[in-house]
Amino acid sequence: MSCDFIGQALPAIQSLQPYQPGKPIEELVREQGLDETSIVKLASNENPLGPSPVVTAAVNNAMASVSRYPDANGFALKQALAERLNVPMEQITLGNGSNDLLVLLAECYLNTGCSAVYSEYAFFVYSLAVRATGAEGIVVSAINWGHDLEAMANAVREDTRMVFLANPNNPTGTHFNETELRWFLDKVPSHVLVILDEAYVEYSADADSNNSIALIDQYSNLVVTRTFSKAYGLAGCRVGYAISNPQVADILNRLRQPFNVNSLGQAAALAALADDEYLARSRVLNREGLVQLTTGFNALGLKWIPSAGNFICVDMGCDALPVYEELLAQGVIVRPVGNYGMPQHLRISVGLPEENQRCLDALEAVL
Ligand SMILES: *Cc1c(COP(=O)(O)O)cnc(C)c1O
Q1: Which residues line the pocket of ligand 1, CB cutoff 6 A?
Q2: What CATH number is given for 20-50+277-366 in this structure?
Q3: pTM of the model
Q4: What confidence tens digit (pLDDT) does each residue in 259-307 have?
Q5: Looking at domain 53-273, which of 3.40.640.10, 3.20.20.370, 3.30.70.250, 3.40.50.2000 is its CATH number?
Q6: What digits encode the pLDDT tens for the residues 215-247?
Q7: Whose CA is nearest to atom 15 of ligand 1?
Q8: Taking the chain, what is the end-to-end CA distance rounded to the nearest angstrom?
Q9: Which 3-state string (H, E, C) describes 115-132?
Q10: Whose CA is closest to atom 14 on ligand 1?
Q11: CA atoms of 261 and 255, how far apart (whole Å)
């Protein structure tokens, strides 16, 4: 008789549904027998520019030491981040992507009998991270697809240890401003950690003036997470970071894997951080791509949700899954978001101008 290794797993884990990533190009090649170079992937909010040449050179150079363990403390990268963000190094925690830090925060501060608050349509990983610990996830209804900060503050209970805010949010692209954030931080009890996920902050028009990190001095419960995966173009390298109160960083450092950020990732991120030109180019390309896509959607009579990220949700006005499948057959990979409770929308990442056009042409052909 075989054993029941599902039933034997922790109940909290049994209840989880795995994260659904965007379909990899190689998988579509296998499934549809399409030519790899003809495929357009606009499904994972990756930077369409590809890696900056500065990063490629740094990674090639770091290859020479790949037989050694990485710097467990990520000294060079933390030092560069500290300088750039104007925070002491002891407030920085590096992660294997910012996803690693979201999970680590939940593991360090949540347990059965606790709860954490996040919004309807918020990034899927919050619910995974929270529920894996046995804690309860309190999902607050969205308002106009975005976070209802007032309702979220009111949802905080006696047993709530943590709130997740995504700004901008993925998949909806909605965002709130610093005044709203301050209002929220004033409203939430100071012992409740507020995890502000800024995976797309570099894309926002007011990225430089809107400095949430500066608020940590005033609100010691604020934790800001950022990533090199999106605007910096390093999704495959897996590097993210959290800026927090030094005590929170101390706690995260106790549980994190000693070598959670690999040496190639550290070298890549360090190089990327210094490459202001690449970041500026990414921003311009994204702004123009959003205009191109939304103009195209309007011409097709499709409604869309205004986005502050490098992606946009567009309403098909019908079940979006068959549209997704037909786009796949044409070699265009986008992201269905039915698992977020948005069965009529597709999330489309901003690509290069010709990729955006391929997507719009394919949509027109399908509809
Ligand atoms: C992509 C994304 C992340 C994390 O990505 P990493 O590659 O793990 O850094 C975090 N939050 C949101 C909202 C995202 O979209």
Answers
A1: 45, 97-99, 123, 166, 170, 197, 199, 227, 229, 235, 240
A2: 3.90.1150.10
A3: 0.96
A4: 999 999 999 999 999 999 999 999 999 999 999 999 999 999 999 999 9
A5: 3.40.640.10
A6: 999 999 999 999 999 999 999 999 999 999 999
A7: 170
A8: 52
A9: EEEEECCCCHHHHHHHHH
A10: 199
A11: 14
